[in-house]
Amino acid sequence: MSTYSVVLIHYPYMLNMDEDALELKCHILDLPWEDVLVPHILCHLPLRHIASLQRVSKQFQALIQVYLANCRNFDLSQIGTCIPKEAFCNMLRDNKVLQNLSLHNCAEWVTDKELLPVIGQNQHLLRVDMRGCVRLTRHSLVAVSLSCVQLQHLVLAHCEWVDSLSLRSLADHCGGLQSIDLTACRQLKDEAICYLAKKCLRLRSLSVAVNANITDESVEEVAKHCRSLEQLDLTGCLRVGNQSIRTVAEYCPKLQSLKVNHCHNVTESTLNPLRKRNVEIDVEPPLQRALVLLQDVVGFAPFINLQI
């Protein structure tokens, strides 16, 4: 959007002025920063462009700092490559209104030292994505639970530092949690998941995939307490069987998606009632799997009426 277009939108009385004269008199930085530029223009730019604008001039650097202090969404994946640690700290040093924070693109280096100040001054966070942040510790999760009591969505996939004590802290303080991804959090056992289910009754999405410690016990507790459950990921939970899946089918009428790939103790007789409810299941029915295998072997599959 050109400077002229912006001016015409917010100052229509200038329509009769000569365009060349107007461009000579006005500069985009002359517009009100917090009333116009931040809420109506900069908010539409990707974060990577925001970061680049800081290098234009000292005035733009000051403007971008005002924007960053007021932004509610901070997703580093928009920048593309991993940003330096110093840039991360500088960009968020004045922000106290964040609602969504994604750390995916700094997962390899971010530690408690960088994250704890951000969490401490942003108590209105609704969504936090820490997936793959291998250098954090349980202290970061405890800080999130104590500071962000309105938290609704949390991603902790592949954070093996998540333990039962930090998850209990989360459950005690963030009862409004709606979704949590605990994929490959291998320290967690049934006891921690059962406690979470009893405290976070609004859960709609849960993943405990790739965890050999999870059994029917915790899945049944989730089903009985989280009646609004819509998505459940049990991929690779080798100790989960038919018993808990039947409980899920009974207690979770809103279920839309169930992932049980590599759950070898879950059979088609248990999954079939869920299929009839149009629940999306990541494992094909046996006949369908056989047809796919036959096609792979001989190059084609015979026509079979699956409605019979």
In short:
The chain is of the alpha/beta class and 308 residues long. Helix content is 43%, strand content 8%.
Task: Note the topology.
Layout: H1 3-10, H2 19-25, H3 33-41, H4 47-53, H5 58-70, E1 73-75, H6 85-91, E2 100-102, H7 112-120, E3 127-129, H8 138-147, E4 153-155, H9 164-173, E5 179-181, H10 190-199, E6 205-207, H11 216-225, E7 231-233, H12 242-251, E8 257-259, H13 268-276, E9 280-281, H14 286-298
Parallel strand pairs: 1-2, 2-3, 3-4, 4-5, 5-6, 6-7, 7-8, 8-9
Helix pairs in contact: 3-5, 7-8, 8-9, 9-10, 10-11, 11-12, 12-13
Can you describe what's shown?
It is a single chain. Helices cover 43% and strands 8% of the residues. The protein has 308 residues and is of the alpha/beta class. A 9-stranded parallel sheet has the order 1-2-3-4-5-6-7-8-9, with helices on one face. Strand 8 (257-259), helix 13 (268-276) and strand 9 (280-281) form a beta-alpha-beta unit. Helix 7 packs parallel to helix 8 and helix 11 packs parallel to helix 12 (242-251). It starts with a helix and ends in a 10-residue tail after the last helix. The model is unreliable at 1-15 and 303-308 (pLDDT under 50).
Brief descriptors of the model:
single chain, 14 helices, alpha/beta, disordered N terminus, 308 residues
